[in-house]
Design brief:
homodimer, 354 residues, alpha/beta, six-stranded parallel β-sheet, elongated, DNA-binding
Chain lengths: 354, 354
DNA sequence: CCGGGCCGGGGAAGGGCTTTCTCTGCGGTA
DNA sequence: TACCGCAGAGAAAGCCCTTCCCCGGCCCGG
């Protein structure tokens, strides 16, 4: 690789001058030398060594984000928001996928610290795991102690700047929505119990049902992976155990899509026999059939806000921005049927399917 | 930030020894010093400066990939394959989104070069743009000249190692499939004409139709963005101009989903009135309604192969791996209806919709 | 008893860049 | 004419780490 001194030598100037031309330093350089340098750069196809630059420069320009999985639309949207603000401020964004592995998450914090990023953003649910939380907070504290900035999205456990989607309120909206439609036999297709996002949404849902005197027994909540196939599995388990359900709450849209797939495979009409409601409102939600009723979270906005917090010098007190959830009514929910709606697969005859 | 010399000082050893302990060098260090160093590392929460390490070490460990957009499932799948192989070989993957902007793509090549990556992988369609192609090849050549490795996915323009999905054969499969089902009035919802992926698929389609004596007039091909909304727009234009179409070919699945959405909004039954076929087989294809018939490309495999090529020292001759396409029949295609199937929105009376 | 070889450890030279400081030479002012 | 100041260029000191090379002990063999 050509180096700066190669360029300088070829242009017949000192490395200092070459550097000044290349970086557009404030220090003036005569037009002639400037041109000689630029010509040398072009001829040698010179590209500065980014690592050497970072080492020599004082201020850090990159920002890191740790998500569960960018190819999950939920994080893809958040990342879009992060990216937008980062780019606006001339910063590079490094994306790390933890694939929901807490250990990997810890490793990535170290990695990003080693990369000298200006800020670390943690997106995605936290874990109910005291040891992990302590370890993570230690690492983050160490990072912050050396001037690093930290912002989190949707995590209670960190005490600094945070953007919080109102998962609990969203859960309440789901409960209210279904209650109004007359549903009383409600099953929940939930993500891993260890994720705070799961429990927050569930808590909200329970709260609103409780307000109407309904309870949500444990056997009507099935935990599985937070993805399409998890949704299929949990829905199947739910229906097998309790064929009388009239509504299924999926705690995210991916699972809801799995639920729809399973219901279709069992020829259960949605929403005539069973209503399905999701959570997040990812873009594909409007394109499945029936179009998915869901709780919308302002994902892009969440990303953008988090990046702004991370790049802002930071107030003394931690800033927490709570972003509201709202119901988006589409075609997968409807009034509860009046008769037992789901026939067990084996059963062949009987009951009109009004 | 604590530095290596901080650690060394605290442990009462030289930086050289500290470095050896931390990196597990082959040079032996007595147990006592080793422990002192490790304790100091823990106490100071020391993390090596990755940039300094890269500068000091000779060999490059990171690999860069430039995709159009990772949040597009097509690239998400490819990236998954890349990632898997990279991780297996202990390498870090840096992902860059060009958002289909050729200039940004050029910039990212420079950026990755500056980052001293061991290899650059270009995923996603090339462009019909001679100037851009020349510029890109120059930059890549310069990179390769300094020992960098390059592999491309689905691009003809680069002469080195490549993984090529067989887009043209895939196009032919689409044509054959629809012809067999009796479709003669076929419209194409195409991506930007400037992308080679678009033209390759189109060429294949034309070939197979021509083999049956059919032609594909220009007005039955509508170009738009390669995404859902592009699919909506192009399908609308197609149907408005030519209500007699019995089949719509979308040149990728995102556009196909847009096509389905538009058809649904116009109450056109799929596949009874109009068949829809996509391309790529992204995961969501099976979950839309009707489930999408499409041409499957082994996306993850493509990524994995490309990374293997990139990390392999490389033969003298460029290696090109062509991966086959195959039709996945689902529910969005069916026999062509016998009577004119689509009534213009405005028209109210007439023709039975058998 | 002395010299060579080996082992554990440190000194110091980079690696490529930025930036401060220094130096030169010029123009302007008294 | 003498001096001051400044613009423009270069020398060199880092930034933090790795690794080559060397050094001092020790053990062993001659």
């Amino acid at each position: 690789m050509a180096t700066l001194s190669d360029v300088a030598r070829r242009a017949g100037v000192s490395p200092a001058t070459a550097s000044r031309v290349i970086n557009g330093s404030s220090k003036p350089v005569t037009e002639e030398l400037r041109e000689r340098v630029l010509r040398a750069v072009a001829e040698l196809q010179y590209v500065p060594n980014a690592h050497a630059q970072l080492l020599a420069r004082s201020h850090r320009v990159a920002v890191g984000v740790i998500v569960h999985d960018v190819s999950d639309p939920y994080f893809a949207e958040i990342t879009r928001g992060l990216q937008r603000v980062a780019t606006d401020q001339g910063r590079l964004l490094t994306i790390c996928n933890s694939y929901r592995d807490p250990d990997r998450e810890l490793e990535y914090v170290e990695l990003l610290r080693g990369q000298q990023v200006a800020a670390i953003i943690l997106a995605g649910s936290g874990y109910h795991d005291a040891t992990f939380t302590r370890l993570l907070n230690e690492k983050l504290a160490a990072y912050e102690a050396t001037g690093g900035r930290v912002a989190v999205i949707g995590r209670h456990e960190h005490s600094g700047d945070a953007v919080m989607p109102d998962n609990r309120a969203g859960g309440r909206l789901v409960g209210a929505e279904l209650y109004e439609l007359g549903h009383r036999a409600i099953g929940v297709v939930a993500g891993p119990a260890v994720l705070t996002t799961t429990t927050d949404r569930l808590t909200g849902l329970r709260e609103s049902l409780a307000a109407h005197g309904l309870s949500l027994p444990e056997h009507r909540v099935r935990h599985a992976e937070f993805d399409r196939d998890g949704g299929v599995a949990a829905t199947a388990a739910l229906l097998d155990a309790d064929p009388g359900l009239t509504a299924i709450v999926a705690l995210n849209d991916s699972m809801a899509i799995g639920a729809l797939a399973l219901l279709r495979s069992r020829s259960v009409a949605v929403p005539r026999q069973v209503s399905v409601i999701g959570f997040d409102d990812m873009p594909i939600a409007r394109d499945v059939t029936p179009a998915l009723t869901t709780v919308r979270l302002p994902l892009v906005e969440m990303g953008a806000r988090a990046m702004s917090l991370a790049l802002d010098p930071g107030a003394a007190a931690p800033r927490v921005e709570v972003l509201p959830a709202e119901v988006v009514r589409r075609d997968s929910t409807g009034p509860a049927p009046e008769v037992a709606p789901v026939r067990p697969r084996a059963a062949g005859s009987g009951a009109s399917a009004g």
